[in-house]
Design goal:
heterodimer, A: mainly alpha, B: Rna Polymerase Sigma Factor, Chain: A, Arc Repressor Mutant, subunit A, 2 domains
Chain lengths: 147, 207
C-alpha cells in the first residue's frame, strides 16, 4: 500500500477529524473523502487504535510519603526577590563605575574601539533578546507567572 | 486556520470548581492549597514520567515543578485553566535537564520497567481482551519513547493527557495550526514505528 493518499488529500485533516477539532465543513469534507479512499480509512483506523491504546494507558504514581512537603510561607521567596534586586542594583553601579574609570583613564584609540565595540555588540544582543521576549510575552496567556 | 473549529477560543477558561480552589489557595486557605498540591503534583508527575520515561527523574521534575507552581500562584489569573500552565512548567524543566540525562541514558536505551500500571477499568474484564489491550498499550508506549522530543511531547499532550488543540497550543506556545500538523506527523511516525515492531496483538502493526 502506498505511504501517502493517492489523491493528495490533506492528511492532517484525518488527525483533526479523529480529535473532533475540525469545522463542520472540514469534517464533511473528510467524511466524503473517507467514503472513497481505502488508504485514508486504513490510516484513520490505525490512528484510532493507537490513540485508544494511549488514552487507556495508566501510569504508576508515587505514594504520598514520597512527596516533599508543599512549599509553605513566602519568606524565602521575598528574600530571593530582594536578593535579585540588590544584585541588579550592584551590577548597574559597578558597571557605571567601571565605564567611568575606563572613559577617564588614559587609553589608546584602538583599546577604546575594542571595548566600545564589544560593549555595543553585547548591548545589541541584549536588546534583540529583550524585544523577542516582549513580543512573545504579549501573546502568552500565562505571561504573569513563572514557567 | 479555516479548517479548524473556531470555538473554543484560543484561550480556554478555567472550570468553575478549579477557579474557586485557586482563588481560595491564593487567599492562603490551607485546605485549598492542599487540594491543589495533591491534584497538581500527580498531574505533574505523570506528564514528567511520560516525557522522561524514568520514575526517579519524573519525581525530581514534579517536585521542582510544584515549587515553581506555588512560587507564582499568587500572580496567576484564576480565570485561566491551571493544567496548560502546570504542564508547561514540567515541559520546560524536562527540556532544561535533557542534556544532563542524555549523557546518562547512553548507558541504557530501554525505558524503565514498572512505569505502566495495568489495572482494569472495567470491573469484570474479559481476560483475552485485557491481555490484548495491555500488549497494545505497552507496544504503543515503547514506540512513543522512540519519537523525537518535539513529536513525543505533542503526542503525549493529546493522546495521553487528553488536551484540546487550544490547550496544547498554550502549553507549547505554538499556533493551533502547527499543533495539528505536528501531531499528525507524530502520529504517522508512531504508526511506522509500531508497524516495524513485532506485535502479537494483530490490531495495529501488521501492515
Amino acid at each position: 500500500m502506498a505511504d501517502r493518499c493517492p489523491t493528495a488529500f490533506d492528511e492532517r485533516l484525518i488527525s483533526g477529524y479523529l480529535d473532533g477539532e475540525l469545522t463542520q465543513a472540514a469534517e464533511q469534507k473528510v467524511r466524503l473523502h473517507l467514503e472513497d479512499c481505502a488508504h485514508c480509512r486504513a490510516l484513520l483506523e490505525d490512528l484510532r487504535a493507537i490513540r485508544e491504546a494511549a488514552m487507556s494507558t495508566e501510569f504508576s504514581k508515587p505514594d504520598d510519603a514520597q512527596w516533599d512537603e508543599r512549599p509553605r510561607g513566602s519568606i524565602s521567596f521575598v528574600a530571593r526577590g530582594a536578593g535579585w534586586i540588590l544584585a541588579a542594583v550592584w551590577a548597574v553601579v559597578v558597571g557605571m563605575y567601571a565605564l567611568w574609570e575606563f572613559w577617564t583613564a588614559p587609553a589608546s584609540p584602538a583599546e577604546r574601539l575594542l571595548v566600545v565595540g564589544g560593549l555595543t555588540a553585547l548591548a545589541l544582543l541584549f536588546i534583540s533578546v529583550l524585544l523577542d521576549r516582549i513580543r512573545t510575552a504579549r501573546t502568552d496567556p500565562y505571561r504573569e507567572v513563572e514557567k | 486556520m479555516t479548517q479548524q473549529r473556531s470555538s473554543p477560543g484560543p484561550v480556554a477558561a478555567s472550570p468553575p470548581r478549579e477557579a474557586t480552589t485557586v482563588i481560595l489557595a491564593q487567599q492562603g486557605e490551607e485546605a485549598a492549597l492542599d487540594e491543589l498540591a495533591r491534584s497538581c503534583r500527580q498531574q505533574a508527575y505523570v506528564f514528567a514520567l511520560q516525557l522522561t520515561g524514568n520514575p526517579d527523574d519524573a519525581l525530581d521534575v514534579a517536585q521542582d515543578a510544584m515549587v515553581r507552581f506555588f512560587r507564582s500562584l499568587g500572580r496567576f489569573d484564576a480565570s485561566r485553566p491551571v493544567r496548560p500552565w502546570l504542564l508547561r512548567i514540567v515541559r520546560n524543566l524536562v527540556r532544561d535537564r535533557a542534556r544532563r540525562w542524555r549523557v546518562r541514558r547512553t548507558e541504557s536505551l530501554e525505558p524503565a520497567e514498572g512505569v505502566l500500571r495495568f489495572e482494569p477499568r472495567d470491573p469484570r474484564p474479559n481476560p483475552e481482551t485485557l491481555s490484548t489491550r495491555r500488549e497494545l498499550q505497552a507496544l504503543v508506549w515503547k514506540c512513543v519513547q522512540d519519537l523525537s522530543p518535539r513529536f513525543r511531547e505533542v503526542l503525549i499532550l493529546r493522546d495521553y493527557q487528553d488536551l484540546t488543540y487550544a490547550e496544547i497550543a498554550q502549553t507549547l506556545k505554538i499556533p493551533r495550526g502547527t499543533v495539528m500538523s505536528r501531531l499528525h506527523r507524530a502520529r504517522r511516525l508512531l504508526r511506522e514505528v509500531v508497524h516495524r515492531r513485532p506485535n502479537p496483538t494483530g490490531e495495529v502493526g501488521n501492515g
